[in-house]
C-alpha cells in the first residue's frame, strides 16, 4: 500500500492553501473557491491552528446565523486537528478519516510543520489508479 509520502511525490505541484485566524469567513471561502478545494488550513505564522472546511461553514456560520463578511475564522470553534505524517499508509489515513468522519487531513513533517493536506478524493483517486494498474497487469498476464 502506498504511503502519504508517495502520494505527495506523485503530485509535486500540490499547493498548500492556508488562511490566518484574522481572515474573514468570506475570504476563506473565496480562497477555497479560487483553488477549487473544500478546505484550508488555518495557520498563525508556521503554527497549525486548525482547518476550515465547507462543512464548518455550514455548521458554524450558516446554521448559527453568523455574517460571513464580518466573522473571523479565529472566532469559530476549532477542535483538535487530526493530522498524519508522510509515513502513514493510505489505508491508515482512510481509517482515520472514517473513524473521525473527516474528509481532509493535514500532513505534518517531523518538525510539526504543515507540508500538505490530503483529501478523501486524493485517496480514492490513488486507490482507483492502483487498482486500474493491477487489473491491466493481470489482463496482460492472462492474455499473454
Detailed description of the structure:
- There is one protein chain.
- The protein is of the alpha+beta class and 144 residues long.
- The protein has one domain: CBS-domain.
- The protein is 42% helix and 18% strand.
- It is built from 5 helices and 5 strands, in the order αβαββααββα.
- Strands 1-2-3 form a 3-stranded mixed β-sheet. Strands 4-5 form a two-stranded antiparallel sheet.
- The protein is elongated and about 65 Å long.
- The two termini are 26 Å apart.
- The mean pLDDT is 93.
Q: What is the number of helices? A: 5
Provide the low-confidence segments as ranges. none
What best-fitting shape do the alpha-carbon axes yield? Answer: elongated
- Count up the domains: 1
Strand order of the largest sheet: 1-2-3
CATH topology: CBS-domain
The helix-and-strand class reads alpha+beta
So what's the CATH class? Alpha Beta
Rg, Cα atoms, Å = 18 Å
Mean of residue pLDDT values: 93
End-to-end separation = 26 Å
| CATH homology superfamily | CBS-domain
Share of β-strand residues: 15-25%
